[in-house]
């Protein structure tokens, strides 16, 4: 029996490492936003899913261990079930105008469900959660470093996939706003972890203790996390993404204010840390790497010149005609052509507004239900910040809540949830909201 437990733990470690590897891999092949890259990503996830099924059969265990995991799984099952109804057309008025794209959405949704189950089932200790966070931060730093280097070298095309970056950093993504969104999510998690490392009690001023504290910081996780944040902020600024930058710093400011209200004992250096992000990262580092160009892009934004707003306006008749049931998952481009009154300067296969796209494809009922689930995850993260005493879990809840706010802001002008790498990372963050709320505190060996 003891041998089986040890072997099961070994398998658990292996699965967590593979999950972390998938998170790091997902953005590398063009954000997995190509058929071949998405297929490879789905294959990796389904392979781990099969391994989980074999493991459950071998050790006579359930697919999910805790009741709270069902709250994570249920929305995915609801969405997948509804997509199947659209695909099969068994119910009058519930149908799709593009069966191929809807079938692809079903496959992606199943992969996302499997990944969420695997994250919630195998990352059930502080050690494994730390591995997961390390993978997220490594992925963000890799993307930021790659995007920054290419941008500063001003190459005509990227060396691997041959895409022209222009004057905006894109990392290994095709679209700079997907790159900015991905970095924003990674930044939120890194900042949340950094908050968990801050002290929650005030101490009297002592020069010797201050020096010891400063020296210990140089060799601690805090310095590594702070440097990681600077690297990712540089990448975010170089993306020149207006809402990516505005959304992140807005979420940072709003969440910092909320934390001071929610935390029963706010970290002592939370306010100085937030101020340092705005002063050091946004103003000083940003001035070196061109934050003025981002500000100029925001100032030069003209609603008359922006066709994205016109796409939203022209999508409203589709919503009105298919208000309850939608036109089918993934069908926006197929249906929008029939309602587009004029040719736009750009190519729009997505609505550049996830709220509009979800209403078009899934209808108001499914969209509202998924919205409530998202808000519940945000509320759960805030409750964790208030109720739990574990600093690590509270800090990660802070990062998750900040990431949700950031995503809610950014998807109002872009289609970040249509990029598999971004969606996979966001699903991981949403799953963490339940884990840090309900998992018991475990002692780890650093």
UniProtKB/TrEMBL annotation:
<feature type="transmembrane region" description="Helical">
    <location>
        <begin position="175"/>
        <end position="195"/>
    </location>
</feature>
<keyword id="KW-1133">Transmembrane helix</keyword>
<feature type="transmembrane region" description="Helical">
    <location>
        <begin position="270"/>
        <end position="291"/>
    </location>
</feature>
<feature type="transmembrane region" description="Helical">
    <location>
        <begin position="355"/>
        <end position="380"/>
    </location>
</feature>
<dbReference type="GO" id="GO:0016874">
    <property type="term" value="F:ligase activity"/>
</dbReference>
<feature type="transmembrane region" description="Helical">
    <location>
        <begin position="106"/>
        <end position="124"/>
    </location>
</feature>
<dbReference type="InterPro" id="IPR051533">
    <property type="entry name" value="WaaL-like"/>
</dbReference>
<feature type="transmembrane region" description="Helical">
    <location>
        <begin position="246"/>
        <end position="263"/>
    </location>
</feature>
<feature type="transmembrane region" description="Helical">
    <location>
        <begin position="34"/>
        <end position="54"/>
    </location>
</feature>
<feature type="domain" description="O-antigen ligase-related">
    <location>
        <begin position="228"/>
        <end position="369"/>
    </location>
</feature>
<dbReference type="Pfam" id="PF04932">
    <property type="entry name" value="Wzy_C"/>
</dbReference>
<feature type="transmembrane region" description="Helical">
    <location>
        <begin position="74"/>
        <end position="94"/>
    </location>
</feature>
<dbReference type="InterPro" id="IPR007016">
    <property type="entry name" value="O-antigen_ligase-rel_domated"/>
</dbReference>
<keyword id="KW-0436">Ligase</keyword>
<dbReference type="GO" id="GO:0016020">
    <property type="term" value="C:membrane"/>
</dbReference>
<feature type="transmembrane region" description="Helical">
    <location>
        <begin position="131"/>
        <end position="155"/>
    </location>
</feature>
<feature type="transmembrane region" description="Helical">
    <location>
        <begin position="392"/>
        <end position="413"/>
    </location>
</feature>
<protein>
    <submittedName>
        <fullName>O-antigen ligase family protein</fullName>
    </submittedName>
</protein>
<keyword id="KW-0812">Transmembrane</keyword>
<feature type="transmembrane region" description="Helical">
    <location>
        <begin position="419"/>
        <end position="439"/>
    </location>
</feature>
<keyword id="KW-0472">Membrane</keyword>
<feature type="transmembrane region" description="Helical">
    <location>
        <begin position="223"/>
        <end position="240"/>
    </location>
</feature>
<feature type="transmembrane region" description="Helical">
    <location>
        <begin position="12"/>
        <end position="28"/>
    </location>
</feature>
